[in-house]
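Task card 7
Instruction: Convert sequence to structure tokens.
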Amino acid sequence: MARTKNPRTRALLVERAAQMLARREPVTLRALVAGTEVSTMAVYTYFDGIDGLWRAVRQEGFIRLAAELATVGATADPVRDLTALGAGYLANALANPDLYRVMFDATADLEDAASADATLGLLVTAVARARDAGRFAPETNPEVIALRVWVIGHGLASLVATGPLPVEVLANGEPMLVALFVAAGDEPERCARSVARGWRPEPEPRTGPEPDRV
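Output:
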């Protein structure tokens, strides 16, 4: 009879592997389980070996990112929502710096690349909402703007969550997003208000007209 797998054991091994990689430590089976009550066979039980573990480590980063972005609800202000997704990206990186370091290591495959791509898809959908609401120009390409939002978030995360700069640097995200969205067609003052609400979240109505609609 097969033993029931414990998701906490799987999570423990993924976390330990991410931490070791971040510290540039060689990840061997013995080192991975040292100091735990888990045997080296657990790597085969849960991941079918070390290659499967690498895939799981990368995937876990995207799983947590998706969970963070899922907390961003749709409001009457699509530019605020798009900004909040960018802020969520940074929040995930700050909360999971070890996993974030290895999320984009293309030397290891993902367990489910499509689900990882879906995180960018959330940004694409938000940009399309802003365009369809008249905030961005009709010719706006949602994939292009979404990618630029991701680049801003990734750059800040790399400098702060896994880099040398202090958290205060994250404040630079606000003016960069405003500049990006205004270039896409949004009105400057209205855009600044929306970005401020998304970057520093405040309660937002889920339905009804946007408060600052002009």
